[in-house]
Amino acid sequence: MSIQFVATAQLPTEHGDFLISVFQDPETKEEHVALSVGVDVERPNDEPTLVRIHSECLTGDAFSSLKCDCGPQLNATMQLLQQQGRGVILYLRQEGRNIGLTNKIRAYALQDQGHDTVDANLLLGLPADGRTYEMCPIMLGHLGIKKVKLITNNPLKIQALTEQGIDVVDRVPLVVGKNPANADYLNTKKQRMAHMY
Question: Of the residues 23, 29, 35, 107, which has the fewest C-beta atoms closer than 10 A?
Fold first, then answer.
């Protein structure tokens, strides 16, 4: 992957002030974002850094959907990073576990008919989880981060990042956003995708 750093700017939010850095693949124009606090690229720190790999979820992040726990996870992580004073969210533009918004809504329609989130993707001829993480070491490398405490419930993220050469020294659980509308979704992630709740 040829993703490259493009620009950084200040981003004040309701949770506090962050730096927002955008990275782009010059060929495909695909963009990803690093949202950071307390990270100085001019003075890399060897201490393990809190990091969340968060895949874009328009319905959860922007529209506060109760079908998933994505929006609460993003907000809770932003609050945690502000409380700790140091950390990064890598916001990857991989909507719907990288099947795209249109297919995600098609999968939602199948879920409305009683299929779980895994089977809905498979019925569409798509992978249960098509996300990739090869951009992560480039983004973290730009920020001078070598060791991470990964904020996740997903063991496959730990494995994927380790395979990408990232030193994952600890896992920080993130259990927020449970509600009656996403109970089956969360149970499917636990039972069929080995998520740790």
Answer: 29
